[in-house]
């Protein structure tokens, strides 16, 4: 045999091969496993609402309830929603759909390894593919929610900006950010189980700390937090493109995009260097 | 094909520490530091310790040993699921595994969907699954349930489908762990046929099993592990002889399929003696053989049954005797005691045999202590047993 596959397992493999090799290995693994990722995604997706009566309707119900609560709080004066550039439901759903993609995505990635359980210790397959594929569900949810957004634009008679076609593109940096983060969380979660619980608390806090359901505050602690929150810039860019047509904070958005790319690659490298440790601790 | 050089793998006894070590190992990996995996930390032990062997193309290697001897860990390292902490494993070719078939099935999806997903997980390409789909379905024999969710499958169907997919993935090296013990007899023989067929195609195999007959049948060479270390490595017959001897002497601990029972009566020592009360293993044909069993009964037990069976090398029994069948009453046993079985004249043909000895409840339903084919017996040519020809015309 000419191009016979030779595999070598030994401790500290990466140290011996050097860091440059790492990127090559990652690229090869992802490239070889495209079909696996698709199959894993399909498995996730087709079982998502298998034992449910109203099935896909949940994709619409959950954000509507969330927005409803906030609208109620805003009307009754408990909460100051700030100055909004569109009717509240439209404004809120635009933000929420992006936020949910991030938050559900990170959670799905984070749990991907622990949920696979047996499979990890019995079959040798690409674990990166498993984690990355698990983000697929939240992407599809997001794409379906675009329908809901379109309906709301019609109901509230809001004239969208022409740049609204760019709205789905915001998903790209968000996804890179999500996957990068998710890869790291999944490793930590497979070793220290506290990570999963901690993550859901952080994500819940994150939703309230990010101007998803209200506009950016001008002063106070929240204003400061928002200033350093990359997700705020993504969400705000998505809204700007849909409603006004001009980015209100192009610099912040640009820096956040760079950050997302950085997080994505760092996540991949961290995962690659440490994935051999997962199965021995699951 | 497979080269294993001084490979070791460590485990941690406690979860909390294991967690802490995991985090610190990951930290070191990230910083580009060596994780010093060759050293033991507190509460760690070597589950596989300095093991080296080699499997050539087309060969079949048997991995044997008691439970917890490191066989499965070794197999998982060959599969790349675990990485060695010391040493080096070099593998040439694509590895397939028949380890816990059916892992990764989704219960809510149909058999058809699961074939594709499982195929992908096992590293098949889309074309490969498309091409082999019919063959997989045919092999598993689940055709009529192909479109119902696998959670409705019987455990037999589940395993059959899992095996069918796994065995169809293209590989140069096949790792097999105990899966032959599944399914009905008919399917088992189908599996063995399939594995043999792969062998003829030049697939290299590593086979883990407690079933000595299967190891003897399938493997030319074997590796016997005990507590992670190599006890014996070489010709399968020699390796199995050694292992069986060790089990008989109680040198191998851990729960073993060779010895089972509730241990209400324990057979502590079994001796094979000739007419002069000399212990030996090799007897001449026609000699007297005494089997002396020293037992200890924990509680008072009424009339237990003792059994002795002699098997030839093909696994067929040539002699069987039960105290109950011959009407021998053992009475009430409590504490230490001895029972002796005497064959006045060994009349079985010259050859090598394995002997099973058991102690049961009166009806033979409950095994108190059973030693399965643990004792070797060799019969040589010897005294002529009086027999004659007669003819009438």
Description of the structure:
The complex is a heterodimer of chains A (about 280) and B (about 400). Chain A has about 280 residues and is an all-alpha fold. Chain A has one domain (about 55-280). Chain A is about 70% helix and about 0% strand. Chain A contains 14 helices and 1 strand, in the order βαααααααααααααα. Chain A is globular and about 65 Å long. Chain B is of the alpha/beta class and about 400 residues long. Chain B folds into 2 domains: about 1-250, 3-Layer(aba) Sandwich (Rossmann fold), CATH 3.40.50; about 260-380, abc- transporter (atp binding component) like domain (Coagulation Factor XIII, Chain A, domain 1, Distorted Sandwich). Chain B has 8 helices and 18 strands. Chain B has helices at about 15-30, 70-80, 110-120, 125-140, 155-170, 185-200, 210-220, 235-250, and strands at about 1-10, 45-55, 60-65, 85-90, 95-100, 175, 205-210, 220-225, 230-235, 260, 265-275, 280-285, 290-300, 305-310, 315-320, 330-345, 350-360, 365-380. In chain B, strands 5-6-7-3-8-9 form a 6-stranded mixed beta sheet, sandwiched between helices. In chain B, α3 (about 110-120) packs across α4 (about 125-140) and α4 packs across α5. Chain B is globular and about 80 Å long. Chains A and B meet through β1, α1, α3, α6 and α13 of A and α1, β4 and α3 of B. β1 of chain A pairs antiparallel with β4 (about 85-90) of chain B.
